[in-house]
Amino acid sequence: MKQGQATGRLGEELAVRYLLGLGWRVLARNFRTRGGELDIVAEEAETLVFVEVKTRATTRRGLPGEAVTSVKAQRLVRAAAAYLTHVGAWNRPCRFDLVAVVGSQPPFAIDHLRHILDISHAVDRGHAAWQPW
Predict the structure, then answer these.
(1) CA-based nearest residue to 98, from 26, 58, 38, 47
(2) Could you give the CA distance from residue 4 to residue 11 in angstroms, rounded to a whole number?
(3) Do you find a cis peptide bond into 107, omega within 30 degrees of 0?
(4) Which residues contact 93 (CB under 8 A, 6 or more apart)?
(5) Residue 44's beta-bridge partner residues?
(6) What is the distance between the alpha carbons of residues 37 and 63, in angstroms, rounded to a whole number?
């Protein structure tokens, strides 16, 4: 396994532990579709949360959240739509969060950003107002 893959897996594991510590339920990990992947699908109360995890050993090459580009955002939305279809959950409120992990050994810095995607321009497609597309 390459160093970057190992760092990414560690970050995802730390993110899962963090979310479980908040009392969330983790429903899926690494949900893959043709158009993209969801790192974590979790449930906070009644809300489905699609969690993108970005991990960096250091911040020398930028902050983890800077890696969520517009192309990545489109892939997240497509993967989330596929997940909602797969589990029959289009009636559930949902959102996109980011968990950024920095460090190569303890103590790790974990930053949780909620509602990272604003795609309200797509709400007029006939879905409920809380659906981000």
Answers:
(1) 38
(2) 10
(3) yes
(4) 46, 47, 48, 128, 130, 131
(5) 47
(6) 21
pLDDT tens-digit map of 5-56: 777 889 999 999 999 999 999 999 999 998 899 999 999 999 999 999 999 8
**3 token code pair:** 């160093």
Tokens of 87: 């589990």
And the tokens for 110? 């974990």
Which residue carries 């995890």 as its tokens? 53
Architecture of domain 3-124: 3-Layer(aba) Sandwich (3.40)
User: Hey, how many other C-beta atoms are within 10 angstroms of the C-beta on 11?
Assistant: 24
pLDDT tens digits for 114-125?
Answer: 999 876 555 445
Q: Residue type for 108, please? A: F
Enumerate the domain spans of the chain: 3-124
Residue reference for tokens 């993110």: 15
Please state, in angstroms and as integers, the Cα–Cα distance from residue 69 to each residue in 76, 101, 123, following that order: 10, 17, 21
Query: Are 95 and 50 spatial neighbours (Cβ–Cβ below 8 Å)?
Result: yes
Cβ distance 95 to 79 under 8 Å? no
